[in-house]
Amino acid sequence: LCGGHGRCECRVCICDANYTGSACDCSLDTSTCLAANKQICNGRGTCECGVCKCTNPKFQGPTCEICPTCPGVCAEHKECVQCRAFETGEKKDTCQRDCSYFNLIRVKDRDKLPQPADQSYPLSHCKERDANDCWFYYTYAVRNDTMREVYVVETLECPAGPDIIPIVAGVVAGIVLIGLALLLH
C-alpha cells in the first residue's frame, strides 16, 4: 500500500518525508545518482526518482559516467584488458582487485570481434601496444547500461625481428668486396 513509503487516507497516499508520487513510489533520495566525482548524474543528467536520466545520449550507465564512444576509452581500459587477457602489464599484480569490472570474451582473430553495425549498444574498437611492441585488439561495450563486455583477440600481433642471416652475409660480402677493390687498385 502506497509503495510501503506512506499511508492511505481516503484513497489518497500521504507519502513519508523522502518519497513522492501518487503511490509514494518515487524516492527523493539523490545518493543513488551520485557519480564517482560526487556530482549528481556526473553533471550529465537529472536524478528522477533516485535514477539518473542522462541528458547527453553519448553518456550512459546508472550515473551517466560511461561513454563507450568517447576518445580515451581504449587507453582507459588498456591495462585491465592486458592483465586479464595476457597476464602482463602494469596491473598484473593487482588485476584481480582492479579489473574484475567487465566480462572478458576471447576470440580467435580480428574478424570475430563484434562490429558496431551488429549491436544495438555503443561499441569501441581498440588497438593498443604493449611493452614488447606487440599489438592487441579488443572491443569495449556497455550492454543494458551496466554490463560491460570486452571481446579480445587472444593472440598478440608482434613485429617480426630482423632476419640476421642476410644482414651478416651482406656485411661479410661488403668487407670482401672492399678488400678486393683495395688489392686490385
TrEMBL record:
InterPro entries: EGF_extracell, Integrin_bsu, Integrin_bsu_tail, Integrin_bsu_tail_dom_sf, Integrin_I-EGF_CS
UniProt cross-references to Pfam families, sorted A to Z: EGF_2, Integrin_B_tail
TM region(s), chain numbering: 164-184
UniProt-listed GO biological process terms: cell adhesion mediated by integrin; cell migration; cell-cell adhesion; integrin-mediated signaling pathway
Keywords: Disulfide bond, EGF-like domain, Glycoprotein, Integrin, Membrane, Repeat, Signal, Transmembrane, Transmembrane helix
GO molecular function, one term: collagen binding involved in cell-matrix adhesion
Domain Integrin beta subunit tail: from-to ranges: 74-163
Annotated GO CC locations: cell surface; focal adhesion; integrin complex; synapse
Name assigned to this protein: Integrin beta 1
Organism: Oncorhynchus mykiss
Upper taxonomic lineage: Eukaryota, Metazoa, Chordata, Craniata, Vertebrata
